[in-house]
């Protein structure tokens, strides 16, 4: 391998580790300083931006199962950050919406790095997004990481 190949490989690993470190650091700060943090905060932010949402829609956004999302939403509801209501045409479907208290929490909460990526990636040119996507696919193959967290999430998309 050439010196340049090794330099680039190290740069990629460094950037990945720096990104991962900053995500963990931001989440720790959020956990230590804010009344709401982690997945609950991310779920609330998604519901506030896109609500009303179904449990399945929130699950797909978080890349977790409906059961995990349901428990998470139970906490948000119990704390007064979201409300739930049944669909008028299909009683099996439940919608969640952010409350005023939930929106107030979001007004002072820090933004998660993953949310920043979700907001900012769509502003990039398609060619750049394709290059990033191809690079991520290569990393997945090399590390044998599945592109989706579970077949359950994938089938519901």
Question: Mean pLDDT score, rounded?
Answer: 84
Distance between the termini: 41 Å
* Beta-strand share of residues: 5-15%
By CATH, the architecture is named Orthogonal Bundle
What best-fitting shape do the alpha-carbon axes yield?
A: elongated
Q: Provide the structure class.
A: mainly alpha
> CATH topology, which one?
Arc Repressor Mutant, subunit A
| Radius of gyration based on Cα positions | 18 Å
**CATH level 1 name:** Mainly Alpha
How many domain units? 1
Name the CATH homologous superfamily. Winged helix-like DNA-binding domain superfamily/Winged helix DNA-binding domain
**Uncertain residue ranges:** 150-157
What is the helix/strand order?
A: HHEHHEEHHHH
**Count of helices?**
8
> What is the number of beta strands?
3
Helix fraction bin? 55-70%
Order of strands across the main sheet: 1-3-2
The largest pleated sheet is described as: 3 strands, antiparallel
